[in-house]
Design a protein that fits this description.
By secondary structure, the chain is an alpha+beta fold. The protein is built from five helices and eleven strands. It comes from Panacibacter microcysteis.
Length: about 425
Amino acid sequence: MRKNLTVVSCLLLATGVFAQTEKKPSSIGFSVAGTDFIAANDIKNTSISDAKIGGFSKLNAGFAAHYWKGLTKNIDLSVTYTGSFLNRLPQTFPDQVADYFQSLGASFNIKMFHDKAVINPFLTAGIEGYNYASKFGAQSPFGVGLQISPFQGNTFLLAQAQYKLAYSDNKVNHLFYSFGVLAPLTEPKAKVLPPPPPPPPADTDMDGVIDADDKCPTVVGLAKYQGCPIPDTDKDGINDEQDKCPTVAGLAKYDGCPIPDTDKDGVNDEEDKCPTVAGFPRYQGCPIPDTDGDGVNDENDRCPTEAGPADNNGCPRLEQFNFNAKNVQFATGKAILTKGAVTELDKLVKILNEHPTLKLSIDGYTDNTGKPATNLTLSQKRADAVKTYLVKKGISTDILTAAGHGIDNPIADNKTAAGRALNRRVEFSVAQ
């Protein structure tokens, strides 16, 4: 008996242990009850399958008073006092003259759901002390229950069915049925939450500058630029803080400046093959070349691969090859080469063979004796005679040009015999 009372005391003390995790508020309840000693006696003496369970004829009317407290969301502790008025007892009941049976104990109730569920089955088990007549004992209730929540708040209907197993020599095992209501001692007060703090000022781009002060609210920027990114004035992809030429588009490798043009010729150094000497774009930044090194650039040099003086357009003079055009003479009034002319033209053939890139212009002239038309024809024939001789010597006709100019371009005075002799001439000019 003392051991059983110790168990009951421990169950009662458990209420305080679990107080910090209280879920169901402290509640009290009352139930109508029925106690069946006859069916329980049959179960003890036979088996559950052979026992005749049920029927109001076997029930002793009674009641139950409850105190419940939630330990967790799914576990409640209950302390229950029961009273039964005995008028239907088995023959084996220890005291047939007893007229009242009472018990007090505690149980754990393990619920399937939390208290917000409308229908919530649970299992129950515990320890109780009982008394009838002058006898005392201990018993354990084992059973099932149903918690029904048809109301708002924490008021429930309770239905339970238990088998109570006695531990003492007084074999008073019995079935216990109850149905009642359970209501909280006090409804828990709803927590009054403090008002939420005002939302922080909006900063859409999360750059630390609130939208109200941000001139670029959707683009991350800096406070010193009013929330905008570092500017790039020249739009070259290099911000002004890193750009040494912030107003002129440039490249990162030149710190935001354009590609330099050291010689200031309009061709940047990356494209300039002569970056320190001024030149022209068509020569990739280099000066106009002078291939033959005669001081006349190739664009002005009619013979860019043959050195010649500037006053002859960069072409060589035939005289420098020991050729004397004055020795190319014709019989008077005819287009027949003299022997001296042939000798001199042979020198010219050698010159042209040694310098195959040269081109030769042959220009025939006359003095003013005779009719101009006749003189023009004669000058052309003399130029053609020279060309014909050169071609016969193997010179390509493609590099020879023959033209007669008559009395044009005199080089001496036609009033004297000496002057007229000088004007009856063939001139040679070299090109390339």
